Amino acid sequence: MTAMTAFSVATDAPLNSAEELETQLRHIGATRYHSLHPFHKLLHGGKLDKGQVQAWALNRYYYQSSIPIKDAVVLSRFRDRNIRLEWRHRIEDHDGNFDTEGGIERWIKLTEGLGLDTDYVESAEGILPATRFAVDAYVHFVRDRSPLEAIASSLTELFAPNLHEERISGMLKHYDFINPNVMTYFQRRLEQAPRDANFALAYVKDHARTPEQRALVCNALIFKTNVLWVQLDALYHAYVEGNVPPGAFVPEAK
Ligand SMILES: O=C(O)c1cc(C(=O)O)c2c(n1)C(=O)C(=O)c1cc(C(=O)O)[nH]c1-2
Q1: Which residue is closest in CA terms to ligand 1's atom 3?
Q2: What number does the ligand 1 atom closest to the CA of 189 have?
Q3: ipTM of the complex
Q4: Is position 137 within any domain?
Q5: pTM to 2 decimal places
Q6: Which residue in 7, 41, 47, 182 has a CA-CA distance of 20 to 30 Å to 163?
Q7: Domain annotation covers residue 14
Q8: Which residues pair with 97 in a beta bridge?
Q9: CATH number assigned to the domain comprising residue 213
Q10: What are the tens digits of pLDDT across the range 186-234?
Q11: Does any domain span residue 18?
């Protein structure tokens, strides 16, 4: 399949080196990452009520619980055992192991702390249609595109730690229903994400050897920033502007 033009970067500026590629990737993050989204400004600034924070955590659970599925698909794209060895800890980071807690369980601590029923959260019954479409599109992307693009699509994680820092301090400061115990998910990601992002960045710098391949890498990152952005657009439309789609979670009356 060829690159989709909807996500194209400027084609008049071919990227001629790994350094130019990195500069362009960082520019994409600085201008398109969902840290810039108005919903995040409200979330971190203490401007949402508990029901709106519940809606965010409930929808994000679908993203979180799909990440190890996505990573299992990425892993399946590689014949190279070394890449599989490197990549597979991501699955364990989220799923945990029989005797160790993983990110999904930590996310459930957050939704439980917010008063949501765990069976309801895990069922994904109340999520927004756009959440499902966007997250599923990410899983399909890593299945359908080249292994290089599959790895490149994880590069939003380069920009996640700053956002997580802002989220931890902002939410602890502003919401009386948030405490450090329910924020351990983000605390843990501060250590995990940089390792993952640095590996993925080094990989694409090394393996994208032509301007065309570098453009594919950039477009994969743009695609992923859109996956993240559109989920917040949908949350904003439903829970800030009050247009909750049929069947989606409805917060209890305040
Ligand atoms: O809270 C966030 O804003 C955020 C963003 C992202 C991201 O940039 O994709 C991830 C995460 N969190 C995260 O917790 C996580 O485990 C994760 C895995 C991935 C990935 O693409 O493989 N992104 C992200």
Answers
A1: 160
A2: 14
A3: 0.93
A4: yes
A5: 0.94
A6: 7
A7: no
A8: 100
A9: 1.20.910.10
A10: 999 999 899 999 999 999 999 999 999 999 999 999 999 999 999 999 9
A11: no
